[in-house]
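Much of what follows relies on a compact textual record of a protein's fold. The record below shows the convention in full:
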Amino acid sequence: MDLTRLRVLAAVAREGSVTGAARALHYAQPSVSHHLARLEAEVGVPLTERHGRGVRLTAAGRLLAARAEEILGRVGAAREELDALVSLSAGRVRLAAFPSALATLVPDVVGRLAREHPGLGVGLVEAEPPEALDALRRGAVDVALVFEHDRSPLDTAGLRAVPVLAEELFLVRSGADPRPGAHDDTRDDPHDEAAASSAEGPVDLAPLADAAWIAGCERCRADLVGRCERAGFTPRVAFETDDYVAVQALVASGVGVSLLPALALRAHRDPRVVVRPLPGAARRVLAVMYGERPSPGATAVVEGLVRAAG
């Protein structure tokens, strides 16, 4: 089976249409259809069927598309292992990371590599964890910097995950919040771990049962709901946004409260909000690679991320 045709099939499955696959791969639509027809001839079974004005994958097509992602990832890993024979004096490492990490940990790593290994290029892609892992499996990136919560762990089967940081979570309230305990945080640097660990007593979420909440991504929302339910109530989510700057602006305006991780507060801190740590609450930040022998460049990036987080 030709790898290019497998890549086309995987794109059709991922994008949901021949048109979408052509756009994602920067191919002409007839070229995508041609590759699919040739692949069907190679495997000897129909991989697509007519559906309305378009096509959809058959059961065989869906099965092969899933295997194609794995095959392409393994080929990418083999290329990385061959790259391991090359020094850090050349080459390029592609890193996918979530926004708050791109604004905090990543610049330190990129700057250090530029000074220590000027011949090594680093490409950056902003991506939430599921998309970053998907790109890693497809060979589109070399390192995926991701996070996971206890109640929504990521599927890293077949991948190599290196712990980077246990990222503390904070309750974020408006500085004008009149409720008791709203202004308990008087620290200058609310994301400083040493100061956070010395805060007196746990944060009680129960008094916020009637508050409006601002939630983030799907996984962050699930974590928020789980924490509130353990406090005895189901949160009333009034707004949803992945933008941590917007979250703090909404909180500052008094329309709700939220939970934010330390990196988000390190990347941007609205002076109109106050924060309190949730003792024992954290999400795990992981640097994920493909293959048993990652390239020296990928290894250098991961080691730099661990160092920056430490």
Observations:
- Residues 41 and 177 are 67 Å apart (CA to CA).
